[in-house]
């Protein structure tokens, strides 16, 4: 499919858990490996997503939906209390729908949703969003640069066996 499907970006809901988990294991198979078989396990991913969804106002899944299917998701965690700092923990677009502008739409629209959420729920402004990403994930780096994040530091093997980069968006400056 070459056309960009008609889509909307909205808060994730419990009924999205299985679709989010399916994309999660496709995009991050090593993160959801079964300790015994070593294979990506949908049940592990679904449980992980379900737990994060229970964070309520303190962590939000935001999904990109088209024709009633979830094609991508992003997860934000409130960090350092409620001072307006978020960690973007994961962003992913289903494989067959990449390079159509969905990732940039998801990251920019979800930031607006989180900004409104922080203001409405905690009366605080969104100040910063940060994320970590593998130093080898050049597609993601280009997405983050396009969304006005800046590379902040590289930490040797922070999470896995490859170096991890920290990217920050200073929303007050952007
Ligand atoms: C990173 C990811 C979310 C991008 O989603 P996407 O829908 O393809 O992104 P977009 O089409 O909106 O592209 C936005 C920009 O990102 C860059 N980009 C995206 N994919 C790219 C690729 N494969 N190669 C080079 N640049 C790429 C481009 O600069 C692009 O802008 P352009 O089309 O004007 O050149 C997607 O590739 C993905 O889900 N990857 C697997 C999961 C992952 O690695 N997530 C990030 C780590 S948490």
Question: Can you describe what's shown?
Answer:
Helices cover 30% and strands 30% of the residues. With 174 residues, the chain is α+β, with helices and mostly antiparallel strands. It has a domain at 8-126: Aminopeptidase (3-Layer(aba) Sandwich), CATH 3.40.630.30. The protein has a seven-stranded mixed beta sheet, sandwiched between helices. The model has no long low-confidence stretch (mean pLDDT 95). Coenzyme A binds next to strand 4, helix 3 and helix 4.
Summarize the entry for a quick read.
The chain has four helices and seven strands.
What is the CATH topology of the domain at 8-126?
Answer: Aminopeptidase
Overall body shape? globular
Q: Specify the CATH class of the domain at 8-126.
A: Alpha Beta
CATH superfamily of the domain at 8-126: Gcn5-related N-acetyltransferase (GNAT)
N/C terminus separation: 34 Å
| Assigned CATH architecture of the domain at 8-126 | 3-Layer(aba) Sandwich
Strand pairing plus helix content: what structural class? alpha+beta
Largest sheet: 7 strands, mixed
Placed side by side, the strands forming the largest sheet appear as 1-2-3-4-5-7-6
The portion of residues forming beta strands comes to 25-35%
Helix content: 25-40%
Task: Report Rg.
Answer: 16 Å
**Oligomeric form:** single chain
Number of strands: 7
What are the secondary-structure elements, in order, as H or E? EHHEEEHEHEE
Bound compounds, please?
coenzyme A
Count helical runs.
4
Topology:
Elements: E1 8-11, H1 17-27, H2 42-53, E2 59-66, E3 69-79, E4 85-93, H3 102-122, E5 128-134, H4 138-146, E6 150-155, E7 164-170
Parallel strand pairs: 4-5
Antiparallel strand pairs: 1-2, 2-3, 3-4, 5-7, 6-7
Helix pairs in contact: 1-2
The site of coenzyme A (COA) has 19 residues, from strand 4, helix 3 and helix 4.
């Amino acid at each position: 499919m070459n056309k960009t499907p008609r889509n909307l970006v909205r808060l994730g809901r419990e009924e999205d858990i299985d679709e989010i988990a399916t994309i999660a294991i496709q995009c991050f198979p090593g993160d959801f490996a079964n300790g015994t078989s070593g294979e990506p396990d949908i049940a592990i991913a679904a449980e992980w997503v379900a737990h994060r969804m229970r964070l309520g106002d303190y962590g939000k899944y935001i999904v990109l939906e088209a024709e009633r299917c979830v094609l991508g998701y992003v997860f934000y965690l409130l960090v350092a209390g409620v001072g307006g700092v978020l960690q973007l923990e994961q962003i992913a677009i289903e494989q067959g729908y990449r390079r159509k502008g969905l990732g940039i739409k998801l990251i920019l629209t979800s930031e607006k949703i989180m900004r409104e959420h922080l203001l409405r729920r905690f009366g605080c402004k969104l100040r910063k969003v940060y994320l970590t990403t593998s130093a080898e994930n050049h597609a993601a780096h280009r997405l983050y640069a396009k969304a006005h994040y800046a590379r902040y530091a590289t930490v040797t093997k922070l999470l896995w066996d490859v170096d991890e980069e920290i990217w920050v968006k200073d929303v007050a400056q952007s």
